[in-house]
Structures are given as C-alpha cells and as structure tokens.
Amino acid sequence: MKEFVVGKNDAGQRLDRWLSKAVPLLPAPLAQKYIRIKRVKLNGKGAARDTRLREGDLLQLYINDEFFEKAGEDNAFLAVRDPRLSVLYEDDSLLLCDKPPGLLCHPDRNEHVDTLITYIQAYLYQKKEWDPEAEASFAPSLCNRIDRNTGGIVIAAKTAECLRVINRKIRGREVEKRYLAAARGTMDPPEGKLESTLVRDPGKNRTRPDGGAGTAGKTAVTEYRTLACRDGLSLLECRLLTGRTHQIRAQLAAAGCPLLGDRKYGGDGGNRGRNFQALYSYRLAFHFTSDAGSLSRLNGRSWQVDHVDFAGEYFPDFSLEDIPPWPADTP
C-alpha cells in the first residue's frame, strides 16, 4: 500500500485523472476497477471516480508494486496504456496482426516501447492472458518479422508450443507469405521467378544479389506477377519461397524495377514523395504438410488485409478482391 497527500497543484483534479498521472503504468480499465472496488481510498473511504480532490486529502492505494516501477527494456509493456493493434485473427495460441509501416517489430537501441511486440505483450497482459511473474522463461513472441517501413501480417505466439511449431513450419516453407509491391518501371517478363544469392553488408544494413556458384551468401527465390500498370509504375504480387533480409527490395532493384519509395535500393529519383517503400505483406496462408499438433486447425486457412494504401493511391481501379488465385496455390 502506498499513501499520497494531495498538494496544492493536484487539488481540484478528478480522482481517476489524478490516478492516471500518479500511476501511469496502471492500465485505465484496471484503474477504474480499483476505484470501484475501493482499492483506492480517499481519507480512509471509497470514493467515486469523478470526486474532486482537495488539498490535504489522504489517498491510500492498494495497488501492486509492479505498477509503480519504471518501465525499462524488460518490462516496456507496462508503459503502454492503449496498445495500438490491428488484430486479424486471435485464438488461445496465436495472434495475426496487421503491422503499419513505420512501426518496429522489435525494440532497438533507440526504441523499446513503441514496437509491435511491446504492444502485443501489453495487450495480453491487460487481458490477463499473460502474467510475466508466473512465467519461468516464456514471453509472447513474434514468429516472423518485417522491416520497419514495410507493413503487413505478423504472427505472434502466445505459447511456447505455438512458437516452436510456427517457427518449424516457416523453416519448412509451410507458411505462405504474399506481398503487394509498387515498382518503378515494368517487369520483363511480366510474370516469373527471381533467383539469386544474396550477400549481406551488415555495415550498411543492406543486401546485394551476387549470382554465380560459390558466392558466400544465401539463395533467395521470389515468384512475382504483374497485376496492373499505370503511370510508369507496376503493381506486383510477390510470393516468397525463401525469407532473406530485404529479399524483395534487393531483387526487384537488381531487376531494374526498384520499389517506389525505396531510397536504400532505388535511390531518390522518382519516389513521388513517399517516405516508405511501397511493400506490404498482405496475405498469409498455412499449408501444413507435416504434423502441427494443436495448430492443425489452422491448416488450409488464409488471411488477407482489407486495405493497402499505395495500391489504392496509385492504382485506383484495382481492388484486392480482383487478385486471381495463383496457378499453384501452395509454395
């Protein structure tokens, strides 16, 4: 229990608004509940949330110590009061989230709160589906990731079993990921396969396709097809048969059709003011060819986002519903 005496500067505030400022890590729904069940006492008694505080009032907070902690890298989720998530699907094992461009998947040296995994952990913590104090080692985790400036579907595991199974399925190419991309120029041929060896340059955080036997890199294979052309741009659907860093971006640039807005691989010319590369992981499907345990119920199912901003902006006559089935619908 912690006690506070209302000072001159806090007098006149509503009780619930004072509580949100005094204990910023306490989720708003839980704060309202604690006021209602009298775990927040005003001068020794329960009080309504809209009670106006007066100078000298004594507030007694019967609230867990964790909410008074300072959020750091290990508990950044406590700093998130309103997790901003677009959930496409959720069950007891996993979440499928539509990540917006500009949001990090994981924390980096500069940001550990404003990330997708932090929002997911905050969301599950506030729903009481995850209690870090009760877990020996597991925390909700992402099974796949996409670049900060790429949008699209990300899989999050709620359980250790789900994380193990999905990671195995991704390695076994039993999870199909399709992307929409707006590229500068026209692909020749309009439909085909890009296959190359990608070599990473960690110093510049980029990859380059280096063809040829014996190259020290990893094989990358991307299938693509042209869906529409307009004003010097092509709308492409890409299907990943491997999952390498910056795979689509590097291969399309090497093919002479860099992504619109991709300054890392396509330079500044002709980006039409876009800050992010025009790339979106818009569709996800599970095609299990081996045992998936409790996740077998997901086999054969697919999910698709409702909207891709650049597709509507640069190809106004195009609709996601117009995309025809791929000739071979499994990887």
Give the topology.
Blueprint (H helix, E strand, L loop, with lengths): L1 E4 L9 H8 L5 H9 L3 E3 L2 E2 L11 E4 L25 E4 L3 E6 L16 H11 L14 E2 L8 E7 L2 H12 L3 E10 L6 E11 L4 E4 L8 E13 L2 E8 L6 H8 L8 H4 L12 E8 L15 E3 L4 H6 L17
Task: From the structure above, extract its key features.
331 residues, alpha+beta, eleven-stranded mixed beta sheet, four-stranded antiparallel beta sheet, 15 strands, elongated
Written description of the protein model:
The protein is built from seven helices and 15 strands. The chain is an alpha+beta fold. Strands 5, 6, 7, 8, 9, 10, 11, 12, 13, 14 and 15 form an eleven-stranded mixed sheet that branches. A four-stranded antiparallel sheet has the order 1-4-2-3. Strand 5 (87-90) and strand 6 (94-99) form a beta hairpin. The longest helix has 12 residues, at 160-171. 34% of the residues are buried.
Give the distance, in angstroms, between the N- and C-terminal Cα atoms.
57 Å
What is the chain-wise order of helices and strands?
EHHEEEEEHEEHEEEEEHHEEH
Question: What fraction of residues sit in β-strands?
Answer: 25-35%
Residues in helix, %:
10-25%
Q: Rg from C-alpha positions?
A: 25 Å
User: Total strand count, please?
Assistant: 15
Identify the overall geometry: elongated
Largest sheet descriptor: 11 strands, mixed
Low-confidence stretches: none
Average pLDDT works out at 89
Discrete helix count? 7
Look at the helices and sheets and give the structural class.
alpha+beta
